[in-house]
């Protein structure tokens, strides 16, 4: 099979915390050698030109909408968006129609990803049947079918008893529970963060406490059951405090933050822009500062997009009627660089760690490393390259980005999955 040589890059090893100049030789979809002045007798040579050569980025929280909502996104279009955003693997959430709560749907998702043939798609299975929060799914069966975690993302698990039982079984099966933390009696009717801005705009609010109460509950249940718990889309300073304290006590909890939550505040809702409507909602300046501090001190393990595409028709309505969610795959790397790396919140290695080894460890994947013998999943990043976000150029079907018109610096220029170039921005010399 084909050989591929990546010449003259700066290789990022997030596990070891190092960046060093090296070439990478790829054979049969695997990394065959890493070193200086490698040669390929036959095959393709890509001149990386001093750019960063990272393990393929992993987004552990996306919504690919298939089966059931193919007008918003399909596994094929989502895969293209991921590749264009520099992601070689994603974990997709089960809030499809039908819900991914049985073996047939998990197998279907994997088959569609295989047909799309671009990136790796790891399905997250529902925690409860229909994500209704009542009866548990067949967890062992779902794991065998290929599920990498359990979650009812999109809906809160309102019963503590159900969540406790779910964690007991998930622990036995050996997969983590990903929790969408939202106390439904507090969030009911809310469409944005509850605070000064919601008062000014006259919109019903979702208080920070709606998230924090459930973060506290699920930490207590994780400690009680010993089940690894991953908190999805952390948005408040109070959640950060709870997670930091739980980690210090050794509770098996991990957490993620989205680029929109570390970049924007509820001020983005002014003008009733439905692209800024998301769950959990955009919060305040203090929350954004706390999220950045938590990224820097390791309280937040992962950066994940919560890529949630909706159609233009669905979003082009009064703010209160629009669905929650924004697309994120094609702006994530640029936002991480522009908002975190360039200002010095995270070093390049720390940022890449939260997009590779950390999500891989949480989901029990072999991906996220550059090592001889590993799958040749690689993302090439140009830290100096800039662009202005233009949603009309997205490979995703979704156009619902609040970052339209924003200038980003630090962008993916090529994405390689199992030794195959699945995205090429056209800036590298290929011979
Ligand atoms: N984040 C969102 O605002 N929306 C997500 C659901 C979710 O992640 O909870 C969606 O599926 O559209
Ligand atoms: Zn969610
Ligand atoms: Zn989600």
UniProtKB/TrEMBL annotation:
Residue intervals of the Dihydroorotase catalytic domain: 50-237
Domain of life, per lineage: Bacteria
GO molecular function: allantoinase activity; dihydroorotase activity; zinc ion binding
Residues that, per the record, bind Zn(2+) 1: 61, 63, 153, 306
PROSITE patterns: DIHYDROOROTASE_1 (PS00482), DIHYDROOROTASE_2 (PS00483)
InterPro entries assigned: DHOase, DHOase/Allantoinase_Hydrolase, DHOase_cat, Dihydroorotase_CS, Metal-dep_hydrolase_composite, Metal_Hydrolase
Cofactor binding note of this UniProt entry: Binds 2 Zn(2+) ions per subunit.
Binding site for substrate: 63-65, 95, 279, 310, 324-325
Documented EC number(s): 3.5.2.3
GO cellular component: cytoplasm
Residues annotated as the enzyme's active site: 306
This protein's name: Dihydroorotase
Top-level taxonomy: Bacteria, Bacillati, Bacillota, Clostridia, Eubacteriales
């Amino acid at each position: 099979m084909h050989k591929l040589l990546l010449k003259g890059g700066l290789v990022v090893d997030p596990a070891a915390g190092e960046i060093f100049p090296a070439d990478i030789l790829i054979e049969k979809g695997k990394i065959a050698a890493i070193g200086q002045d490698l040669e390929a007798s036959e095959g393709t040579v890509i001149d990386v030109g001093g750019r960063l050569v990272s393990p393929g980025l992993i987004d552990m929280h996306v919504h690919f909408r298939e089966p059931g909502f193919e007008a918003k996104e399909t596994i094929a279009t989502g895969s293209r968006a991921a590749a264009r955003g520099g992601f070689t693997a994603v974990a997709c959430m089960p809030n499809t129609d039908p819900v991914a709560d049985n073996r047939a749907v998990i197998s279907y998702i994997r088959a569609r990803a295989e047909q799309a043939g671009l990136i790796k798609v790891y399905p997250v299975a529902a925690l409860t049947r229909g994500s209704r929060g009542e009866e548990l799914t067949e967890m062992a069966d779902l794991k065998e079918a290929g599920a990498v975690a359990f979650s009812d993302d999109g809906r809160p698990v309102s019963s503590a008893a159900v969540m406790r039982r779910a964690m007991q079984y998930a622990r036995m099966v050996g997969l983590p529970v990903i929790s969408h933390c939202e106390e439904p009696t507090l969030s009911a009717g809310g469409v944005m963060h509850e605070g000064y801005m919601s008062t000014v705009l006259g919109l019903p609010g979702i208080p920070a406490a709606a998230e924090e109460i459930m973060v506290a509950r699920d930490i207590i249940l994780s400690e009680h059951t010993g089940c690894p718990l991953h908190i999805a889309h952390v948005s408040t300073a109070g959640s950060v405090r709870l997670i930091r304290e739980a980690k210090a006590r050794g509770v098996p909890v991990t957490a993620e933050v989205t680029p929109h939550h570390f970049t924007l505040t509820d001020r983005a809702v002014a003008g009733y822009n439905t692209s800024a409507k998301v769950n959990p909602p955009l919060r305040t300046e203090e929350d954004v500062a706390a999220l950045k501090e938590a990224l820097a001190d390791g309280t937040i393990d992962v950066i994940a997009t919560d890529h949630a595409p909706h159609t233009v028709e669905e979003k082009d309505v009064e703010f209160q009627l629009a669905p929650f969610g924004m697309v994120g795959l094609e702006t994530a790397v640029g936002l991480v660089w522009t908002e975190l790396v360039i200002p010095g919140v995270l070093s390049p290695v720390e940022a890449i760690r939260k997009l590779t080894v950390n999500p891989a460890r949480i989901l029990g994947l072999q991906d996220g490393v550059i090592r001889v013998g590993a799958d040749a999943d690689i993302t090439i990043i140009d830290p100096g390259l800039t662009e202005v976000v233009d949603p009309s150029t997205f490979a995703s079907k979704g156009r619902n980005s609040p970052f339209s018109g924003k200038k980003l610096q630090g962008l993916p220029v090529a994405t390689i999955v199992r030794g195959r170039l699945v995205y090429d921005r056209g800036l590298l010399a290929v011979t």
